[in-house]
């Protein structure tokens, strides 16, 4: 799938997710207030925080797609982890405020007995979130988009959040009103967990994340198989947002013609970019090896044919 199609699919998923979270936040907060359920109100704020997260993703997607300019030679892909950092801080604040409110409810004995309407809100939440999970995970796997797949599992974790709220409401209805704010506290802890995960991932990306050793080894093997490459001396990689930039140092016969050496570099670049679609740029440094062209003459036929 090309970048334009991938981007179009991603935007469509984001808009559907945004609409779903707006609906859920409005329903849960409204029903939570009407039904006097602290847990459902807390779960509603969880959905409200999801709206902010989705908006942040949408804005960062727009910024990250802007072309390189004189001040950003490698584009604007770092907008994505930067936005994730801001979203993580916002969610952290929401989680702490919600948790504080639930703890104060328990200490001050501000306990309520939610009505059956609250359970309707929980049921709607579970159904919508399970639909969003199944929809987003399908598109994520089709587009091979790791960010969307993570968002899909976020929807599945929201189902757990709503279940916690439902247990608290049922407990309160059965005569244990303390379970309602406790369920709200559990929801705030789930939001806190998501916030910390977002911040950790964003920090790793902002500090500069390289590909896994297994991926580098596979790329090195791909390069070593190219005709005319004597040895792969060094390979380094850096992710700039979702795009991978590679720096490769390899050797060719010491007496090879300049045009053949250049063509070997071109073949290496084409092979890597064809197999690893996240590879945005492959910078190749060619060094002389100890051997001569005569020792690997047969291996150079394909490269020579490309020049004819």
Automatic annotation (TrEMBL):
The species is Halarsenatibacter silvermanii
- Identify the GO cellular component terms for this protein: membrane
Q: Which family does it belong to?
A: Belongs to the cation diffusion facilitator (CDF) transporter (TC 2.A.4) family.
Domain (Cation efflux protein transmembrane) ranges: 15-207
Does the keyword section mention Transport?
yes
Q: Which domain of life is it from?
A: Bacteria
Cite the GO molecular-function annotations of the record: monoatomic cation transmembrane transporter activity
Cellular localisation:
Membrane
Domain Cation efflux protein cytoplasmic, first and last residues per copy: 211-288
The record's listing under InterPro entries reads:
Cation_efflux, Cation_efflux_CTD, Cation_efflux_CTD_sf, Cation_efflux_TM, Cation_efflux_TMD_sf, CDF_Transporter
Pfam family, any one: Cation_efflux
User: What is this protein's record name?
Assistant: Cation diffusion facilitator family transporter
Provide the alphabetized UniProt keywords: Membrane, Transmembrane, Transmembrane helix, Transport
Membrane topology type: Multi-pass membrane protein
Lineage of the species this protein comes from: Bacteria, Bacillati, Bacillota, Clostridia, Halanaerobiales
Can the keyword Transmembrane helix be found in this entry's annotation? yes
